[in-house]
Amino acid sequence: MTKTIFIASAEPYSGKSMVALGLVNMLLGKAKKIGYFKPIINSSPTNKKDVHIETIVHYFNLPVQYADTFAFTGSEVMRLIEANNQGEIIDTIISKYKQFEENYDFTLVEGTDFTGEGTAFEFDINVTVAKNLGIPVVLVVSGENKTTAQVINSVFTTLRNFEAREVQIIAIIANKVNPAQTDDVRELLHGQLPRELISAVIPEDKSLKNPTMQEIYQILGGKLLFGEQQLSNQVDNFVTGAMQVPNFLKHIKDNVLIVTPGDRGDIIICALQANLSVNYPRIAGIVLTAGSEPEEPILRLIEGLQTVVPIIAVKTGTFQTTTEIGAIKSQISPDNLKKIELAIDTFEKYVDVAALDEKIVTFTAEGITPHMFQYQLVKWAKSQKKHIVLPEGNDDRILRAAARLINQEVVDLTILGNTVDITAAVKRMGLPLDMSRVRIINPAESEYYEEYVQTLYELRKNKNVELEMAYDLMTDVSYFGTMMVYKGHADGMVSGAVHTTLHTIRPALQFVKTKPGVSIVSSVFFMCLPDRVSVFGDCAVNPNPTAEQLAEIAISSAESSQRFGIEPRIALLSYSSGTSGEGTEVEKVRLATEIVKQKRPDLKVEGPIQYDAAVDPEVGKQKLPNSEVAGQASVLIFPDLNTGNNTYKAVQRETGALAIGPMLQGLNKPVNDLSRGCTVDDIFNTVVITAIQSMG
Does the structure show a pLDDT above 80 at 45? Predict the structure, then answer.
């Protein structure tokens, strides 16, 4: 069962606040501890609180602090977008959301309101947030001032835009629909939407749509002269009191707001008298304009009345005041219990609550996004803090990554190199790295140096390694770091920013060796594509594996995939799909596929298969219609290093994908190799996956 639901809209004033109230009320019948999270709010918390958050938290008495209910204000998001820091937005939202997931039985997440700055970016942000959180979405579309055709078009346009990004929609609600159109809209949606998608049509209700005198008073400001007790009066329409009294009386409608200059005592008295008369509709309130107030005799008369509607005096002129009143959009505030209860009742009346509840219970997320994958990696690494050795302390990138790793408390670190040089480099770059939290070792001066030399000699003397050679090799940072891992003084090693792949992994091949039952060390990259994470193997180690080796690489890659939370669907790639092609290279892949099926019948595997048929659902369905893997492969095994290395680099450069790795697989203990062109992010991510590998 999912523990979260996301409410999203694509336009302002869709009425999603009513849907949120209904959903929280529904969920409180299923779970004890409900959380509420609105990632991006419009208002700055230092100025005023978000009314809707206040209403939800206050009415349902949710156990959540206001400061925890949001991640950013709209202006903060705009600044980050302008600085091209969209990744920071998503990472922060994921981190905050995960706290809700851990601390609450169920969390309602609500999208943006489309009423602040940067509305052009909001739709994309909402889709991105929903996608990265991997949670089901309830879409809310406004029917206000739209024809039936426009409502239907809005529903399908919004739905297509979410589904194009592979966001899973479980329900769509057409809200504020003209009551005369509701039957037509309901029938058209029922006939055209997929059966598994819940749809609801909610007619417009003036009692929910129109503002109260309290809202008008708060927005216009001004001075409240009378009627504080009746500020909850609802305003359904307003009239300007600029005519003579007999004509004015003809324009009074139920719940009317009268806007008139403060010196029009005749209109004021007439309005108050009409409110008391059984022959006239109810008056909601009076707004006096132009900075003038009634004269003293009129005020004394009003003070003597038992019932007085709210009377507000403002400084703006009549035209400006009526324009401002006409622009007011009502919000459901914490103190308006009548509106809150009406919203909940309306939701329950028009939405199939039982069907929606069933959808939530049976929902399963599909796939994992790059941001969520990276968040999950860091979280796993932190859960069992491991000790990683970085042999290349003379490289600035290594030190920058080390500062991040230590400050985020991801791992414990040993850095190999000269203490004076490393300390000077940290100072030169101004890195926020507490040197007392990092162990720096110069191999030749280490207390373990002699022990490591003797161990290496014993392990390699049958391979013509003399004691003098062992002394020499152990001054090499790659050998020293690998020996730390072998002896259990470190849990894993990451190197290669300066050294070649061979230099990095040779010591591991010599004495760490491969796991039982594994004859070949191979590698995988975690390719973080815009909408999914794929595992590519082998793109870094084996130039031209045999069919048996290719099968072993596929099995190791599937195990790595599973270990990192990605369901393995293995595609062994070739230049033809199925039985269509011939040639030694295709036959090698075909044989490797059969070996995988024999050794691991539990794995989903397809091969030979072309890249497009492996990852594109349409092509996969066309070329291999009965395949469990075609079109949805998550583990892609390349037939040789030439193909694999070029493909991963092409995908990385052309799509902007983040490639985490290579991660070596098959060794008894984790040693991982960096590219010499690696970035600080690459080092950070590789240390994280090395720490996870060492957990076994």
Answer: no
